[in-house]
Automatic annotation (TrEMBL):
It catalyses: 5,6-dihydrouracil + H2O = 3-(carbamoylamino)propanoate + H(+). PANTHER family: COLLAPSIN RESPONSE MEDIATOR PROTEIN, HYDRANTOINASE/DIHYDROPYRIMIDINASE FAMILY MEMBER. GO terms for molecular function: dihydropyrimidinase activity; metal ion binding. It holds the Pfam family Amidohydro_1. This is dihydropyrimidinase.
Length: 511
């Protein structure tokens, strides 16, 4: 690939004329079970120039220039798409340890071939934020997209949002209802943001915790002399997540625009999403791996290095929440799994050794997500293999409007593919991971089902435990506005307006 390749899509519309970085490589994956969200079938997959050209049984090998990979007894699936990461993010006085190279190494080794990262504006300025993230992403080794955070409000921000959507391929904006004094927004900003998102066809996302109450809760813990990592969990209980989730849902309903709730960590928040969905509201809930499988007990570990690893927001909850979130995921109340990969090493975590409020918030997961969801959800019979593909890849591609180029193995899809061996076992931990961190919140975790091969846009980048990746080979994926989550919004607005004009008839119709 050529210099500046990651923005080929930005320059050329939809990567037209860029060849997808496949370098003429031809691969035939034979004998596996090809799994898409809509069905699993015995089929071969033929890839050329970074694109899937054929999916059917018994594709003949053809000529010598085709590399044949035997997938007998294995699952051939779309590469994972992580909807929620923070690579090279400046946060809480430091910068996450994984950048767009080490983060991509970790992702690819774990079967994730695309992620969507959050651009943080610079002093509230969106253009400066995007420039900064373009620089950060210059070392990328796989495809990525951007969401953008909104941290202040004025006419310029509103104008820039339009530019981001129309010119820069961003179709989602995140509002932090927590982190008072830094990223937090107030309800009036959230309302303005929801209105603007709606008019642009961009999806509004929220970090849902009541930031004012969190500040109060933190002070309460400090006053009680609780300064260790356990104070983090105690200071921001599930009710504060439930409250903010409910508030964001109601404001989105009032504006009539779809809402995406990131990192749903508690039963309280999940129940608000379930209730809104039951009432027909377009709300998407994203659990993250840490929330699904960890519990808060380790925040009480007397070893600060261990306890502080688990500090993220909203906090990892008491045992019971994770199981409920898994059940919600298996029944469709929650729709797709992210990680919130936001990694700090033990030296960075130690900034808060005498005050939990200074522990940089965040956990790893970009490398572990695909394996943990397989082991904890498919191996235990909670979801099918097709649902696995849906929650780890397809749903994300659909929500962010890049399906079926991403999130599927269909003719014409990008050749982002993994081969998973359901019989192989794994042990996770810092000894084996590709993150730059010296710690791992899944240290020692064992399970079944291993991604043996990762193919990124037609190139084998992970095989036999070896990575073969190139900095700068990743490509920016533009995400167009007005995805399917916006279907019906105009019609329901029209129905609402006509109901206002005819209150008497409405009363009669009901009778
Ligand atoms: O603790 C977390 N989640 N850190 C990353 C920033 C965020 O809130 O997503
Ligand atoms: Zn290119
Ligand atoms: Zn967040
Ligand atoms: Zn996050």
């Amino acid at each position: 690939s050529h210099p500046g390749h990651e923005f080929c899509a930005a320059a050329g519309g939809d990567a037209a004329g860029c060849g997808g970085g496949g370098d003429g490589t031809r691969i035939l994956i034979k004998g596996g079970t090809v799994v898409n969200a809509h069905r699993a079938e015995a089929a071969d997959v033929y890839i050329e120039d970074g694109v899937v050209l054929a999916v059917r049984p018994n594709i003949p090998v053809g000529d010598d220039n085709v590399r044949v990979i035997d997938a007998t007894g294995k699952y051939v699936m779309p590469g994972g798409i992580d909807p929620h990461t923070h690579l090279a993010m400046e946060f809480m006085g430091t910068v996450t340890i994984d950048d767009f190279f080490s983060g991509h190494a970790a992702a690819l080794a774990g079967g994730t071939t695309m992620h969507i990262d959050f651009v943080i504006p610079v002093n509230g300025n969106l253009t400066a934020g995007l420039e900064s993230y373009k620089q950060k992403a210059a070392s990328s080794a796989m495809d990525y997209g951007f969401h953008m955070a909104i941290t202040k409000w004025d006419d310029e921000v509103a104008r820039e949002m339009e530019v981001m959507v129309k010119e820069h391929g961003i179709n989602s904006f995140k509002f932090f209802m927590a982190y008072k004094g830094s990223l937090m927004v107030t309800d009036d900003l959230l309302l303005e943001g929801l209105k603007k998102c709606k008019s642009l066809g961009a999806l509004a996302m929220v970090h849902a915790e009541n930031g004012d109450a969190v500040a109060e809760g933190q002070q309460r813990m400090i006053d009680l002399g609780i300064t260790g990592p356990e104070g983090h969990a105690l200071s921001r209980p599930p009710i504060l997540e439930g409250e903010a989730t409910a508030r964001a849902i109601r404001l989105a309903k009032f504006i009539n625009t779809p809402l995406y709730v990131v990192h749903v960590m508690s039963i309280d928040a999940m129940e608000e999403i379930a209730k809104a969905k039951r009432e027909g509201q377009k709300v998407i809930g994203e659990p993250v791996v840490s929330g699904l499988v960890l519990d808060d007990s380790l925040l009480w570990d007397p070893d600060f290095t261990i306890a502080s690893k688990y500090v993220m927001s909203p906090p990892i909850r008491e045992a019971g929440h994770g199981k409920a979130l898994q059940a919600a995921l298996s029944s469709g109340i929650l729709q797709l799994v992210g990680t919130d990969h936001c990694t700090f090493n033990s030296t960075q975590k130690a900034f808060g050794s005498d005050d939990f409020r200074k522990i940089p918030n965040g956990v790893n997961g970009i490398e572990e997500r695909m394996h943990i969801v397989w082991d904890s959800m498919v191996e235990t019979g909670k979801i099918s293999v097709t649902d696995y593909v849906r929650v780890t890849s397809t749903e994300c591609a659909k929500i962010f409007n890049i399906y079926p180029r991403k999130g599927a193995i269909l003719e014409g899809s990008d050749a982002d593919i993994i081969i998973l061996n359901p019989e192989r076992r794994f042990v996770m931990g810092a000894h084996a991971h590709h993150s730059r961190s010296n710690t791992n919140v899944y240290e020692g975790r064992k399970g079944k089902g291993m991604v043996e091969v990762t193919i990124s846009r037609g190139r084998v980048v992970w095989e036999d435990g070896v990575l073969n990746i190139t900095p700068g080979s990743g490509r920016y994926v533009r995400m167009p506005p007005f995805g399917h989550v916006f279907d019906g919004i105009e019609k329901s607005d029209a129905a609402y307006r006509s109901s206002l004009r005819a209150p008497v008839q409405r009363g009669k119709a009901a009778a």
